[in-house]
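--- STAGE predict ---
source: upstream dedup step, 1 unique chain passed
mode: sequence only
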Amino acid sequence: MKAAAPWVRTRLRTAPGPAVALLLLVLATSFLAAAFPRAVDAYEGRGLRHEVSAAVPWRSVIQLTSDARQEMDGEPDRRADALRPPRLTGNHRRILAALPDSLRADTGQSAYGARTLDPVEATDEWLPELNGGRPVFTLSTQAEVAEHSTLTSGRLPRTTAGSVTPATPTVEAAVTSATARSLRIKAGSIVHVPRAEGAPLAVRVTGIVEPRRPQQSYWSVEPVLRTPTYLQTLEPDPQPYWHGALLLAPGAAPVLLSVAVDTEAYWRVAPDPAGMDIADLPRITQTIASLEHGPLQTALRTEVSPQLEISSGLDDVLIEFDGIRAAINPVVAVAAFGVGSVAGVVLLMTGGLTASRRRAELSLLRSRGASVRGIAGRLLAEVAVPVLPGAALGCALALVVVPEGRTLPALLASAAVALFACATLPLMAAFLHRRPALHGDRDDLVRARPSRRRTVAELTLLVLTVAAVTALRRRGTSDGDVDALISAAPVLVGFIAALLFVRLYPLPLRLAALPVARRRGAVGFLSLARAGRSSATAVLPLLALLVALTTAAFGGSVISGVDDARARASLVAVGADARIDADRALPDTLAGAVRKVAGVTDVAPVYREFGLDLRDARAEAVTLLAVDPDSYARLAGRTGLGAFRAAELRKSSGALPALASPAVAERLRGRTATIGPASGPIPVRVDMVRSSTPAVAAGDFLVVDAAGLPGRHPASTLLISGPSVARGDLEEAARAAGSATVKLRSAEEDNFTMSPVQSGAERIYVLAAAAGAGYAVLALVLSVLQTSAERTAMLARLRTMGLTRRQGRRLLILENLPQALLAAVGGALVGWVTILLLAPGIDLGRLALADQAASLGRVQLRTDPVSLLLPALGVVAIASAVAAAQAWMITRRTTTTELRVGDTR
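--- STAGE serialize ---
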């Protein structure tokens, strides 16, 4: 007897098209599912490296110090040996070797040596002296200066091994070019610093060096090593004096024991951001904790010094980053749930389409004795052939396209897609054919009556949705925990809306059919009748469209809220489109010159005085702003930062009218008060209270008319209006002001997007919306394909009765229109309601402003009309286009061919 043909091979040979289409669909879905966790890991890893790299060096390095005077039980010779290069270098190597792989050191930027804890005053009269007194110097023997600098004059300091002791009278040193320029030091100069006992120590400057990469850790953990700074004398009248650094040879370290009471050996370990990954974050945090207060500290004290102290600001940097990441993750999870739900619905529709088309075949097998288990097993084997390779290829493609990130979550996501795709068709077929049936009853939307089980399931889903929305509104997303139920809230709202619309759908169809039935022509009536006789399983395409539209609306509102928050924060920070600030008075001609710059529409000059004395014996700082009322009122009105009328600020008689912040108004209590200095006592009266004003980003303020102040008060700030003004033009105009700085609102807004975590999360949202739109289009196509054979035969029969091709096209388009309109209107409505429901529970501050979120307060979702209406209109347009394309293809065939569609004989 001839063997029966294998089921799977026969099915794939006779119908290769659906198998290839399923393979491509699973490939795309598997790719998205596998790429998502890796993409999140990738942008979080870039964000971690960015935060560590961008942190100021003194915060990111790990600092280890040891008090040299307590070394070796106070024995002088052994204390000196502890500061010599062999001992310091050996300890440096031991420290680097003790660090685990998760916290790798940047050996090129790490530094070690010995230094004086407090600066010592030089005794030389030739050094420049400011009002606060003579210059002071930090003496440092930091190693490897030659490798991190370029010699510009003289030679580097040197010593003979072991020749320097605490009693050595003269040592050599180098200074940086900035120190030499500011303190008038040149090669050959001798700087004398006092010792604790005896004659001063003479430090001969043998060379001047220019630091390489001065902003990196080697030079910037202690900035005075490269650039001298001002220090201030004590109150009540602080005066400045110079603070510089002398770079001694490493072998000269023992002499520091005689110079100052406090001398320390130090090791500064700069972390290597290039080796950090988001998966290492917990281990890095644990390592830092262990270094500061744990086993690693104990081990290093045993190997290096019992007095070793370890501190680092890196843990604070990591905590801040983890807070930003934790606040953003729940918002990103909403996008993931949205696109994942749409993809799942499309896979369900694919299985439903196949089960519907093969219903007669499977019913025949069932009536001839085939078991449900046997049919499901054959279908599972048939589906697994395209699904498993598609899922594997999609996962492999994701690993190539997104090379960074953990592999296990990607594999699990692809496996879940493959399992879901394999199970869809067998389970749906098993459910439809659980009992043998001779024929199928009509399954129309209009005639369908929901069962009790369906009602219970829908009520259960409704309860879950209410619980999710309530939890999200109460708890919010700011705590950083990703709760699946809360993140699925928008999707659940879409599910409930789809079920509600399906229940209400027959009512408008019946109402619309009444007037159409009385009109001449059959196209309108037939289209409504056909729409009402569509399968009750049409809930799936409607569900896919509603979830996709809700996700798009939610994503659009997120992006809109983020953009609005950044625009608002940049406006508050700058106060206008641009500003020019100076520590002293700006030239009188500068405002006129700026007005002539291309793109400038208005300029508001402001005189600022910090630390205004309100004469109420309170220490809170207040900023006095003396302004031109007309230009400043125009600016405040345009920006919405404390708008007022210019006339209200002008003095008519008596006290000077003022605009104050709430705290200042409360301190002055609405009375006429005399304040100062600002060139003398000023009687003011608070007539207006505003919470913000353009010239001050934060803090308390008092705004008065500059013309009402005694004396002359030239502007120190110019607030410039003009969205198209260029920085280069303003800098050129401000060059006459010397050290004036130029800030642009656009540049300030760009600074908020520098974090890879923020930009990565935004890209995830954009891609999720695009993927959801693609799946929605696919859902529309599948819904048309599900009834394409029936529609083709129906149209052919109508054409034999006189229906023209033009009428046939109109019939198919109008038949699709009710569901498309339902999805479009319902999607826009559900998206709007979802935003209103969820806005109180979602804080976009960290996503918009990262660590500056506190400056603007809570940032909530805001409705974006474009993301609500544009996708809805797109659904109607695409549905009409798909129906038109189907009608065009059908009308190209001959009537005989059309009549035999679906006939297997």
